[in-house]
Each structure stands twice: as structure tokens, then as C-alpha cells.
Amino acid sequence: MSEVADAFRELYGRAPDGVWAAPGRVNLIGEYTDFNEGFVMPLALPHTAVAAVARRTDGVLRVHSADIAGPVVELRPGDLEPLSGAGWAAYPAGVLWALREAGHAVPGADIHLTSTVPTGAGLSSSAALEVVTALALRDLYELPLSLPELAGVAQRAENAFVGVPCGIMDQTASACCTEGHVLHLDARDLTRRQIPFDLPAQGLRLLVVDTRVQHALGDGAYAERRAACEQGARELGVRTLREVGAAHLSDALDALSSARVRGCVRHVVSDNARVARVAELLASGDVRAVGPVLTEGHVSLRDDLRVSCPELDLVVETAVGAGALGARMTGGGFGGSAIVLLEEGVVGVVSKGLAAAFEAASLAPPRLFEATPSRGAHRLL
Ligand code: ADP
Ligand code: MG
Questions:
Q1: Complete DSSP assignment for 323-367
Q2: Given a cut of 90, is residue 83 above it in pLDDT?
Q3: What is the pLDDT of residues 31-57, one digit of tens each?
């Protein structure tokens, strides 16, 4: 972290006023449910975006990323317009814009950042960037905003300034997760519950498998699925799919006009039920039984919502075939990452199996790491 401060000094010729960190996340269960006012259960990763930041008084925002080959990006007040094509700088700029839109005085900032969250791997490097910026600006300008409120500002930045129609999960996970827990989040009223998630105590592990592929198909698919969910809600006469209980699913499906909408509704309603099931299992200490629920969630994402891809399916099939308790794609799909729940004793054989399966399919080796539930956004210096 002091390297980030040193790099800041070199870049801007003065010391930063502070250094902050915000993590990426994986989602244990509840996918494509947050924008339907449903339930999700993410955990923060040990991988973080770290930002050194100093105040400015002239309305200007300067941002630099150690991870992008390029100069400092300077944005004057007139440049801070939504969808302005600011490239990666749109994430921190969008946060400043969203804070100002909400009526907060943020006169400007110099930012230098670096991140260990893999980008475009479904691990929310974008939310990490937004949340670290939001937290730094809140602290520096003493804004009266809680961590969940900062998550809302960050989501608004991504929706309205960057132009990505994401739900509230990623930013809330990055802002509000705590070490050793998964976060049970009700995306309707934003009620949060920290659920202990100590896998090593049970002889278990959670692996993240980054397939390192990203299919172009994914670009419009999120918005398309979102639109299909909204259509389903309209046809069923409810405000959001949150209101469709699992007990009424088959009646609801009969009332829908197309197979595409039926698939989306079946996925969302059943995944909300899976979040409840996983919460129960964790509360009762039956963590091993979570595995099959994850795999069931994957089948639903693959066959009903249709957002998986051959590489993610290969991870799930291979891991479960090699003895994992369960596995599923996580995040938006069409590439990115999967998670695997497994006994500590089979980590070696599952990892080797995955490497071999990818090689046999002429794919580059996937990147594997353990998901240890880590703390949310915080100040470092
Ligand atoms: P994800 O959030 O799943 O990683 P996104 O496409 O939502 O994928 O966000 C990735 C984008 O976030 C990158 O293309 C880049 O614009 C920005 N980004 C993430 N990390 C960094 C970084 N360290 N430096 C600069 N930009 C970053
Ligand atoms: Mg993102």
C-alpha cells in the first residue's frame, strides 16, 4: 500500500491524503436475482483495488491506473458527463459525478490506483474501482454517507455514467462484506445479514476458477435477460419477479407467453429459493449439502437463463466428476469464473482434473485460487 502512496507522490508531486482499499467479490448463490429485487449471497475476495487520493479545490478530477498503460486522465467539470467515452476513467469519474448529482460537495481529487482484482473475470473489478473511489471521497470530504449508501452511489455511477445496467449486488458486496462471512442481501429493501462462512473449520474449501475467456455474446445478454425478466413480471401482473413464490412457480409458468420468458422466470424464482436454502444449510451447519444446491443453480443458469458457455460447463462437469461437492458459474456468465465447493482433501485432484480437461479441449489453463471471505472496503492509511 505504501508503494501506491509512493507512486502517487512520483506522479502528482505531492503526498496523498490517504489510501483506501475495496475488494472484488464472488457470489455464492443468487444470480441475476438482484435486479428482480431478489436475494444474493456474495463474499468479498482478498483481491482489492487500492487507491491513493488527495483533495483538489478547482473542480478537476485526475485519475491514473498503474495497471493501464497510459497517462493521467484529466477531467474538467464540463467533461464529467454520463457516457462520455472516458474509457476506464469513467468508473472513478462516474462516482464523483454521482456524488455531485446527489448534492454532495466534492471539489475534485487526484487519484492513483492499482488493483489485484482480475478484470472482466466476473469478479467485479469495476465495483471495486467504484467503491474504493466512493469511500475515499466520502472520507476526504466528510460526506454523511454509510457504506450501503456508498454502494448505491457506485451503482448509479455504473448504471447512469458508465452505462452498464447492473444490479446492486456487486457494489454492496465490495462495500459491506465482512471477513469470514457471506453477505445475505435482500435487494428489495437492502436488508443485510452477515452469515459465518468458515469453510476450513469444516475441512472444506471454495475455489474460484477463472476460465480466462470472455465471449462477445455476453455484451448485450445481460440487458436482454433483464428485459425478459421485466416482461415476465408484467405478464404476471407483479412489480418484480421477487413477488413470485416458488410454490406458485408452475402456475406462473403456464401464464407466460414465450419459452424465453418462461426460462428467465423459472431461473429467478428458483434461484431466490436456492439462496433461502443455502442460508438454512449454513445456519444448521450442514455446509456440505450446499454443494448440490450450487450445481443445481448452474444447471438453471445454463438451461433456463442460458448465460453459461462451454468453458464454464466444462469446469462444473469436471469438478463435480472429480469429487467436488458442487460447482456453478458465478457473475454474469458467457465466460469469466466459476466457483467450486470441495473437501480440502480433493483440491489437488480437482485442480489437476481441471487443468487436464482444459488442455484436452485445447484451452489455455484456467486460473485457480481460493476464495477466502475477506473484509469489505476500508481505509489503509
Ligand atoms: P468485471 O467487473 O467483471 O471485472 P467489467 O467489464 O464490469 O468486468 O469491468 C472491467 C473494467 O473495469 C475494465 O475494462 C476497466 O475499464 C475497469 N477496470 C478494472 N480494474 C481496473 C484497473 N486496475 N485499472 C483501470 N481500469 C480498471
Ligand atoms: Mg463489473
A1: T-SEEEEESS-SEEEEEEEEEGGGHHHHHHHHHHHHHHTT-PPPE
A2: no
A3: 999 999 999 999 999 999 999 999 999
Q: Write the residue with the smallest CA distance to atom 2 of ligand 1.
A: 124
Q: From atom 20 of ligand 1, which residue's Cα is the shortest distance away?
A: 125
Which residues are marked as active site? Answer: 170
Question: Which is nearest to 336 in space by CA: 157, 191, 119, 25?
Answer: 119
Question: Which residues line ligand 1 at a C-beta cut-off of 6 Å?
Answer: 65, 67-68, 88, 91, 115, 119-126, 129
**Sequence spans of domains, the chain:** 2-195
**CATH 3.30.230.10 is held by the domain 2-195:** yes
- Retrieve residue 325's grid coordinates: 461437492
Write the residue with the smallest CA distance to atom 16 of ligand 1. 88
pLDDT at residue 86, rounded to an integer: 84
**CA 87 / ligand 1 centre spacing (Å):** 10
CB 317 within 8 A of CB 302: no
